[in-house]
Amino acid sequence: MSPTKTSSFELIDVEVHQKSIRNIASEMAVTLMRTSGSPVVTEAKDFSTCILDAKLDQLAFSGYVTFHIATAVPGVEAVLRNVSVEEIAPGDAFICNDPHTSGAIHQGDIGIVMPFFHEGEIFGWGYVNEHVLDIGGSAVSGFAPGAFDSFAETLAFPGTRIVREGRIDRQWEGFFATNVRMAGTVLNDMRSMIAANNAGQRRLLAMLDDIGLERFNQLNDESKRLSEEAMRRTIAALPDGTFESEDWVEFDGRGKQELHEMRCRVVIDGDEMTIQFRGGPQTDSFINGAAPAMIGQTWSTLLAQIAYDIPVNAGIWRPVHFDLGPAGTIVNSSPPAPVSQSHMETGMRVNKIMADVLSQACGLCDDPRLRARVEGQVAQNMSFFTAFGIDRRSGMPMVAFPMSVGMSSGGPAQTTSDGMEVYAGQCMSGCDMPDVEMEETTQPGMILWRRVARDTGGPGLYRGGLGVDSALSIEHCDRMTGGAYTNTAQVPPRGSAGGFPGAAGRWRILRDSNVLELLENGILPDPDTLAGREDEMPSKVGQLVLDRGDVFTVVNGGGGGVGDPLLRAPALVAADVADGYVSAEVARDIYGVVLGADGAVDDDATTRARAALREGRIGAAPVNEVTDPVAGLAPLRVEDGDWKCGICGHDLGPESGNWRDHAVTQEAEISGRYKDLRSQVRPRTEEEAVVLRENFCPGCATSLAVDVTLEGKDPVLPGRLGVKEPLEEAVPV
Amino acid sequence: MAAAGTEIVGDFALGVDVGGTHTDLILAAPGGLVRSKAFTTHGNYSEGIFNALEIAAAELELTTDDVLPRCRAFVNGSTIVTNAITELHGAKVGVLITRGFRDTFRLAGGARTAEFDDHLQVPPPDVVDRDCIEEITERVTSAGTAAVPLDEDGVRAAVRRLVDRGVEAVAVCYLWSFSDPSHERRTREIIAEEAPDLFVTLSSEANPVIREFPRFMTAVFNCLSHRATTRYVDGLEGQLGKAGFDGALTFFQGIGGSVGPEAVRQMPISLMASGPAGGVMGARYVAEQLGLENVLVGDMGGTSFDTAVLPKLEPTIAKQAVFGPFKTGVNILDIVSVGAGGGSIAWLDSRGVPQVGPRSAGSEPGPACYGRGGEEPTVTDANVILGLIDPDNYLKGRHELSRDAAVAAVQGKIGEPLGLGAEEAAAAIYDLAVIEMANALRMVSVERGHHPRDFTFFSYGGGLGLFGVEIARRLGCPRVVVPDNSSAFSAFGVLIADYVRQYDRTVNWQLSDPSQAEAVNAVAAEMIEGAIADAAQEGIAAEDLEIERSGEFRFLGQVFEVNVPLPDRDLDADDAASLAAEFPRIYERNYGEGTAWEGSPVVLLNLSIKAIHGRRKPESRTAEADGAGAPPQPVDHRDIFLPIERRRDSVPIYADADLRPGTSVTGPAILDLGDTTVYVPEGTKAERDRFFNFVLDV
Known about the structure:
Shape of chain A: globular
Oligomer: heterodimer
Largest interface: A-B, 98 and 75 residues
Strand order of the largest sheet of chain A: 2-1-5-4-3-6-7
Distance between the termini of chain B: 31 Å
Structural class of chain A: alpha+beta
Largest sheet of chain B: 8 strands, mixed
Number of helices of chain A: 16
Radius of gyration of chain B: 27 Å
């Protein structure tokens, strides 16, 4: 086979081979799902499988959790730092779970590495990555809000051999049994991970029997090249230039509710892309990001938004360059920084910031396929608790991890559709929402309600997906201890292309509630009948105590909208009101749609309301008319060296400047403005108020961008086409 | 087959498969089977059925009026429920649901797909109008206690509102109703008082199993499909009655057996996915005749390829079948479907690599070679270019095909971008279609712990004969059977169907506690009593009913279950102990050594009862397989571009009538069976057995 040009028949062989390898990674995943008992695997799909070749190049990845894309290579590298290849025997397996040393996105997601042997030589590696129910230490289920350093978080394995001849070493079994909560379940999960790797090894050996090792490697290399070229073509279709955004990782769980700044700059240069992150100093709490989660989460968004159709292997990595900046920051933390929510705090901000940057680039793109990939930010809101207690019915230990309550946040609006409810994290492809009856079987009490939360989806021409409002009572344990978290309370997900942000998430605890008493008296506990004491709590609590009779309630966040809500078809707004997704007030005040008593659109009143809203936005009747609402999906363009409104053509100044300087901007403290939006955000009591800046075209009063930023902060720079300006002090990963 | 014109003694039976395009029919006449095909007549399906019957009867020089009065059985398979559910088009449904959970259908158990693409992550469609979902105050707890009583006045008011909104059917969907169905049952009584004409489905009857979303969806889909089904069943029953039919009319279900009209009217959802199930049951029957142990089956249609595995000739059941974004509790034969049919479109992906399907040109405009405006290259176009299909004699000349149009499409969209000639491009499409199908077979076999080398591949459906051997070769499967009546094989499978009904109930028995045995036995007794009563409704006596018991087991804390057969008697403490001891081994047989959860308690989650009543089977045609006479001679030769060898060859064509039982041909060869073509690749021997099946050694 020639190294540069594959003949077309070879192409088919390569594709057949690629599909077979991908099929083997899927079989590993199916084996894991079928043998695992953990709802974290079967419902939340919080796992992945990966196959590497002897060069440690990725051959196939069955992402369910897409951020695991970045764990296998550093995991195997860690193993090889600890033992030489000669010391590794068939049937060995190693455990990796340390973000600082062995590639994990956080310690709760353990990786089991197995070498694949063929005729006495290692020809590849299997890597199964899974969130286990617990991995010891102060962290319940891998989340350690109380720890001040990584040593206090969990057990940490830098790539340690715990399996020989296919069975977990008995000494290690004893070690896990004494150090891990729910050790039986966790050991069973490890056995499932071994079984999954075994399934991969069996199938690959059968393949080698068929085609031989040389051909195997040849086909793999060719397949990587094909993916690389496709990734390069995708990048090349984006406009050359420099694009950036900023965001804030919230409160680290202690003391003052600080915001931790992070920035992202993406430089697109031909068919290559450099992605740079910079952030504030690392903290002594679990929000710090480490490289595996930073890189893995970047890929989660790249895969969901622009690279969704390219088979994942080492090839797609080649044209993408990462730079996490100097060590010691929240985007590139060093030991002993705690990192047990590396993936959910700084990591989940990465998805938001990347969606913003990519949407800016896509919005200015000539290629229609990529221009349609503008999307809102995902809610990315995990509002939940993990806690440990003793089940009073059986006397057995119980770990609470109520996924359906925590993950049910809204998806980003697309240019083709409203966002989806229960989208969960962007990295969680295939994620299911456990049934109420399953949650009530495994969790400490009753799900009292589970409803979509009206007005939580960011308004827009396409609306963001809604968050879910649900409640769980504590009934089966007298007391549970652990932590409660939300990663997006004060800085909500933004919209794109002038769409509005979605709601932030919020959990509450109703103490000493009447829930058990109501049920004893045959009364349904619902928001009307339920009573109790609500203590003021910060958005993260490391020392959570829940007592029997408490109720944990969550209203999850929603996804960001796409396009100006005034451009949404009035009939769709009326349907949203009838369906209970949008309130009549938001329909009137934000969408400018007035409904009659029968719920139908009042056309005349709507025309008047929309005109009035436009006038209110820019302080005068707009001079230009809006004729094509679809143009609202790309409201900015560069023409003849100037920024132009994509809807009415109004000039917004030279392309070297910030078009915002030529727009009409209205700024408001966010919690105040969210009252109009009937949406949810946690007000800040400290300095650095979060504000909403709405930027309108002076010509047609269309919303061009709604910025979520801090009071007094300079507006973020818009994309600079043709300018290739990476941040200084580049520190390539 | 009886010779035309002679007096036919004995009775007839009919199997009919009403598909999306064609209605296939097998008429079992004394002495043999006659098959026929007519276009499906949407709107009034009976018309298409009668058309097909007329054609079949005519082959015996009879008329419909001669045949129907002498028919002892009419078994009907149809896509009517499948259509209602895939198109979400049916009766206007109302839902009564536990207060606090009206959004269950919107949340859909999480509709996020495993695809990375954000454009595919869209809200699921509304099966029930949002204003037809009424919340009812009531609550049963996880312990099975009715903690909050049913608000009967609330039910009454809600039903009146639903009736005002024009609802035709109501699904009653309460949490934990499988463990205490009293609230759902009382609700039905109230509905009967308020609106006696409403069709009502209780989730606790449709699927009395834990997990509310699939259970509720089962009830909702049952309601959605009831109107079209009732109309269809009533219509067919009436028309057949008028034509003098007084045999047993039954309907084929997705689980593989057939039941009578009344059962279908109550539980139309049982007809879901019945189409592909027919062929599976037919293959099982033929495999039994041939004394085969393990079979894999494949059926290739215009848009999809369906496949299933039958280890020891036992079809596996998919619990909780998923339709579109919706999980249900419907039990159907475990059939995997991929988008690789004759109409599947070949295209180049973002890497410039050719792909086949899942998009299909369907029957309109159809493949480019149909000449109806289709411009996309399809699998059928590739077959025409290769010469595997004779464009001048397609389906006995009923369709004329344009090779030029096929070349233009394949060459333009695939050949030129890749720098290939039309034939090479067509070979690439053929190859990729083989891979798609082989991977689907792999999903049902290898991924479930079965090795294809231990299996015979049953290949049927109009188009699969061209691919069967190459697919088997990819899998390491040693033998392919193309059964007699391959082109109407689903109708054949429907015809030989037994009476089968399946019942499931969640019992959640932790085997370490033998004291629960009695309660579980009581549930089993109740289920069997119900099964006997249902059978009696169809005139089947209790002593003629075979009961198969099985259980779905798992280790405590697991989410998926493994089905294990149970003895047909009450269970006691000894059974509990031996089942608990046995289970880890059964589990490891499925998932590999070292995977059992050592030390975890074993739970019998769900009890399943299958009630079966064997029905009389028609006679298949047989002949002495003596290979008497001269070896078959080709009727023609055709230039074919051998798709795997990638070279042109003049290939002999054999006609059906010349291929007598006991004779064989060696590839490359084409067997032209009129409505099916079989491609025998180089080095493969195809032999016709005494049942007129072709057996090909790969």
